[in-house]
Structures are given as structure tokens and as C-alpha cells.
Amino acid sequence: MSLLKTPAIVLKSRKWGEADRIVTFYTLRFGKLRGVARGARRLRNRFGSALEPFVHGELNLFEKRGDSLYRITGADIRDSFAGLRDDLPRMSSAARMANLVGAVTGEGDAHPSIFETLLNGLHVLQSGHDPALTALLFQIKLLGETGFRPQTDHCAACGDGHGRMAGQFSPLAGGLVCLPCARRDRDRCLPMSAGSQAFLQQALRWAPAAVTRLKATGQIRDELEAAVESYVMVVTGKHLPPADFLSRPATL
Ligand SMILES: [Zn+2]
To answer: For residue 160, how far is its CA from the centre of ligand 1 (angstroms)?
Structure first.
């Protein structure tokens, strides 16, 4: 057994047995991991509220050889983000971000930039920025940190970088598509105006801390919300399409 220490953010927490909890964290040093907190549900427990969703803390854990479940021995709160759990719009935005991190990362695969992006997103939410817009921007950023980065430079379906783009976003292909590809899959593509495309590219490029300076309103916001919502459903549903889906008849 070895003793490990890492900054961590609670993604989710569920009951386990009589008095225990199984908690999923995104950690700075080890990426996503799950741990069991013995006695965490007893009235007097040493964890206090450190295992609530979105809490940022310093985690002490034991790793048992051959077991993917860690044993949590201690958790010190750095920021409880209590304000995110007593306000419904902020809580649902925080949950959206935590769920996406959980869905796009593998256990034990460390990406400090994902940790920083999530932590920054929680701080921005807590500071009172528009919760829905904050969630939108941070979902775009998180996708951009992973293999699910929305494709904006060339057609996400056929890879053509020179054809005429259609002003359409395909959630299944994961990005903007060219005219012929959009025609083949008209029912499942979403319109994306030049303004929305520029906004998406900017959001992907900017540092997480600077993203809050981007303001999306009206049509741009509507288009991006629809595109990101559909794309996140594809990503988190793990229903990633086969590479040739656009050439098949649209039967879904
Ligand atoms: Zn194409």
C-alpha cells in the first residue's frame, strides 16, 4: 500500500453500505479516481462536508495494489463552493461541468489542464457570472482539452479542408461540416452562423480564466447552446458514431 496526496475536486458521491461513501474525484496528480470513505455517513465523521459535490480539497489516500478503488483517509477543504449547492441554476451548471469531466476522462489519466479548467469554472460560477453562459463556455473549453475538441478548421465528417463549409454543426461528427456532408445529414445538423463559428473558435482558443470576457447573446447564444447540448449528449452518451455514418441512410 502506498500513501498518496493530491489536490482534488469531488465530481460525485454516493452511499455505499451502512456508513460509507464512494466518491469520484478529478485530481490534479492522478486524473479521475474513485475512493471509498469509511464511516463518512456517521454523524461524527472525520471527513465533515469535504466529500460533498464540487468541494475542492487536499486528499489523502491509500492505493491498494490490484484495486481500482482507493481508500480515502483524509480530506481537507480548500474551497467548499457551498454557494454552488444552495442555488439551483448554479448547482445545475456546476453538475453539468462535473458530469462532462467525468464522462470525457478515464480513471488514472492525469491532465492538469482539465483540473485547472474545472476549478476555474467553479470559481467563475461562484463569483456570480451568468450560470448558463458559464457552463456553456466551460463545456466548450473542457471539450477542447480532450479528444472531443469540436472541429472548426475543416469538415468534421470528411476531413475536407478546402470545400465550401455549410454553416452547419454536426453533433455526431463533432464539428462544422462541408456542404455535401451537411446535405447528406440535413436532419441531424444544426445551423451555425459565421458569428457563432467565430465565437466557438475564440472560446476554444482563450485561456480558461479569460473566457469569461466572452459574451454571447441572441442568435449566437441560442445556436451555441443547441450545438453544445447535442454534442455533449453524443459525447456523454458514449454513442460515438462509426466513421462512415454520414454515408449511410439516415434511419436513426
Ligand atoms: Zn465534408
So the answer is: 6
**Angle of helix 131-144 versus helix 112-126 axis, rounded to 10:** 170
Superfamily the domain 90-247 falls into = Recombination protein O, C-terminal domain (1.20.1440.120)
pTM over 0.85: yes
Q: 180 alpha carbon to ligand 1 midpoint, in Å? A: 6
**Mean pLDDT within 108-137:** 94
Facing residues of 20 across strands?
Answer: 16
pLDDT digits (tens, 9 = 90+) for 129-146: 899 999 999 999 999 999
Q: How far is the CA of 232 from the centre of ligand 1 (A)?
A: 21
CA distances from 40 to 10, 11, 64, 131 (A): 14, 16, 19, 30
The rounded distance, in Å, linking the Cα atoms of 235 and 140 is 12
Topology of the domain covering 2-85: OB fold (Dihydrolipoamide Acetyltransferase, E2P) (2.40.50)
